[in-house]
Design goal:
- This protein is an alpha+beta fold and about 160 residues long.
- The protein has a 6-stranded mixed sheet.
- It has one domain: Cytidine Deaminase, domain 2, CATH 3.40.140.10.
- It is built from 4 helices and 6 strands, in the order E-H-E-E-H-E-H-E-E-H.
- It is globular and about 45 Å long.
- Strand 2 and strand 3 form a beta hairpin.
- Helix 2 runs parallel beside helix 3.
- The structure holds tetrahydrodeoxyuridine.
- Tetrahydrodeoxyuridine binds next to strand 2 and helix 2.
Length: about 160
C-alpha cells in the first residue's frame, strides 16, 4: 500500500476589488444574476456568470420549487443554458456568488457536489480547464484553476 496526496493551488483575493478587471466584471454579472434568484424557501440567493471562449457571458440564478428537489442551483441553470444554447463552445470560467436574506455571507460559496459533477462533464468534454471564482456577498474571493481540483477522483464517461 502506498499513500498518495492530492492537493491543488487556490488563489485567495481579499475582495472583489483585488480581481483583474475581466474577473471583476464577470463577478459583477454574477451579482446581478444573484439578485434575480428565486429562493423563497431557503432565502439563499446564488448567482453564476459563465464566460465562454467566444467572449459571450451567460448567467443563471437558483430556482427553487415547492417540491424542493425540483429546484435547481444557479451554477447548473447557467451551465446548462450555455450547453443548450452554445453547444461546442468551450466554457472558460464561472463566477459564483451567494447572499442570504438572513445573514451576511462573508465566506466564498463553493458549488455543491451535484454542480461540481455537472461542470466536470463539460470540462472533460472540452478537454480544457474551467476556472472558478467564488464569493459570498462580500469578503474574500477564491479562484480555482479547474473544476477537477475541487472534484478529485471524479466519475466520468471513461468508466462507461
Ligand atoms: N445553491 C446553489 O444555487 N448553488 C450551490 O452550489 C449550492 C446551493 C442553492 C440551491 C438552493 O436554492 C439554495 O442554494 C439553498 O441550498
Amino acid at each position: 500500500m502506498i499513500k498518495q496526496n492530492i492537493s491543488f493551488d487556490i488563489s485567495v483575493y481579499d475582495s472583489i476589488e483585488e480581481l483583474w478587471l475581466g474577473d471583476k466584471e464577470l463577478m459583477q454579472l454574477a451579482i446581478l444574476a444573484r439578485e434575480k434568484a428565486y429562493a423563497p424557501y431557503s432565502s439563499f440567493n446564488v448567482g453564476a456568470a459563465v464566460l465562454l471562449e467566444n467572449g459571450k457571458i451567460v448567467t443563471g440564478s437558483n430556482q427553487e420549487n415547492a417540491a424542493y428537489p425540483s429546484g435547481l442551483c444557479a451554477e447548473r441553470v447557467a451551465v446548462f443554458y450555455a450547453g443548450a444554447n452554445y453547444p461546442g463552445i468551450k466554457i472558460e470560467k464561472i463566477a459564483i456568488t451567494a447572499a442570504s436574506i438572513n445573514y451576511v455571507v462573508e465566506k466564498p460559496a463553493a458549488p455543491c457536489g451535484n454542480c461540481r459533477q455537472a461542470i466536470s462533464e463539460y470540462e472533460v468534454k472540452q478537454k480544457a480547464p474551467i476556472a472558478l471564482l467564488l464569493m459570498g456577498e462580500k469578503g474574500k474571493v477564491l479562484k480555482c484553476d479547474a473544476i477537477a481540483d475541487i472534484l478529485p477522483l471524479a466519475f466520468t464517461s471513461n468508466y462507461l
